[in-house]
Write a structure and sequence with these properties.
The chain is α/β, with parallel strands linked by helices. The chain has one domain: Alpha-Beta Barrel (TIM Barrel), CATH 3.20.20. Helix content is about 40%, strand content about 15%. Helix 2 crosses helix 3, helix 4 packs antiparallel against helix 5 and helix 12 packs across helix 13. The two termini are about 40 Å apart.
């Protein structure tokens, strides 16, 4: 897997997000949607031609609203009735300690990482804005740039993470999460996955695992998504079976066409499923994921897709401009009437004059045009 385990001041982007338990993405900034509420008179409907189109709420990472209601507003504005929900917004609304990464960054790295004032919330600071997280040239794999994290910042994040961990351990009531679920349902949005980056980690306690499964059930979701890892599959499969909640493994460019067929993942039980990122697959293998979609769907192991378009050379581009065959894969799902959630993940560079909501809407419209 493309992940570095060196904690001597360096952290890969994926490990960095997991290390800060995803909440670092959600910084406290005054909301831009003042006056807006999640109570819309028209409920969204993003089932097109029988295919469920949603989004991972990571797509809204550059927008200032951070809690569950803000995130719901973004989904409704994009016309989305389904989502893969990052844990940060709902935990913030439930009263969890907020890990304000940008505030800590400005304190310990006042010039911003890489000389960029304030940095960006969604990337390794040394990466260029809009660059793919794990660009790979055709025929080879490239390591992602590493984030030189000052010891003081790392220590501050560790302390904040400990606060969040303790809060999770002591959070025994799911009342607030059920209230958030009801708010989403009333607005017409269903949550099918909750994203917890650190579930299955050896450092996660049994109390945290229990908390994460309970939150997922309280939100009415069917699965928890996390990064592809065999040890996690072995560790979490019994808990998944006990709770009746799927563990849905997400891939980056490390996935090959035979990872699942030759690997042990599905041997751990029926509650181990896949969340196939078709863009990362194309960039990492130089092939379309279409045959793998068919294979996993026929095995009933494909819970959801991450929809993004990337070239075989590694560039992340708007839908229809890359090599991932987004349209063809959507049509295949529609033709076979497979019950697979298809979630937009907005990662391509935002054009000047546009914004994440506009671009997410463009992705939704692309899917609608393909499927209607």
């Amino acid at each position: 897997m493309e992940e570095h385990n060196n904690f001597n001041g360096q952290l890969s982007r994926r490990r960095f997000i997991g290390y800060t338990s995803a909440a670092a993405i959600y910084t406290v900034i005054p909301p831009i949607l003042s006056g807006c509420t999640s109570k819309s008179s028209t409920k969204p409907d993003s089932i097109f031609g029988g295919v469920k189109i949603g989004a991972i709420t990571y797509s809204f990472r550059e927008l200032p609203g951070t809690n569950a209601e803000d995130t719901l507003e973004y989904l409704v504005k994009c016309g989305l009735s389904h989502c893969e929900l990052m844990s940060g917004p709902i935990e913030e609304s439930a009263g969890a300690p907020v890990i304000n990464f940008m505030e800590l960054m400005s304190k310990f790295m006042p010039g911003g990482p890489g000389g960029a004032p304030g940095g960006r919330r969604d990337s390794v600071p040394q990466e260029k804005q809009g660059a793919p997280r794990d660009s790979v040239p055709q025929g080879g794999r490239r390591r992602r740039p590493e984030f030189e994290m000052p010891p003081e910042l790392r220590q501050a994040l560790e302390e904040k993470q400990k606060e969040l961990t303790e809060w999770r351990k002591n959070c025994t009531s799911m009342v607030k999460f059920k209230e958030i679920r009801e708010m989403y349902y009333k607005a017409g949005v269903k949550v099918h996955i909750v994203k917890f980056d650190n579930i299955g980690e050896e450092t996660a306690s049994p109390e945290e695992h229990e908390y994460m499964f309970n939150v997922t059930k309280a939100m009415g979701a069917k699965g928890i998504t996390t990064e592809l890892d065999e040890k996690k599959a072995e560790r979490l499969a019994p808990l998944a079976k006990e709770h009746g909640i799927f563990i849905v493994f997400h891939n980056h460019t490390q996935l090959t066409p035979t990872t699942y067929s030759s690997g042990p993942y599905f041997s751990y039980g029926k509650y181990i499923m896949s969340n196939l990122d078709i863009g990362h697959f194309a960039a990492g293998t130089g092939q379309s994921a279409l045959p793998l979609v068919k294979e996993l769907a026929e095995q009933k192991r494909l819970f959801s897709l991450h929809l993004k378009d990337r070239t075989f050379g590694g560039d992340t581009v708007p839908f229809g401009q890359g090599d991932a065959q987004v349209a063809e894969i959507l049509k295949l799902i529609q033709k076979n009437k497979w019950n697979i959630y298809c979630d937009i993940e907005l990662e391509y560079p935002i054009p000047e004059g546009s914004d994440p909501l506009t671009e997410t809407k463009n992705c939704v419209e692309f899917c609608r045009n393909v499927l209607d």
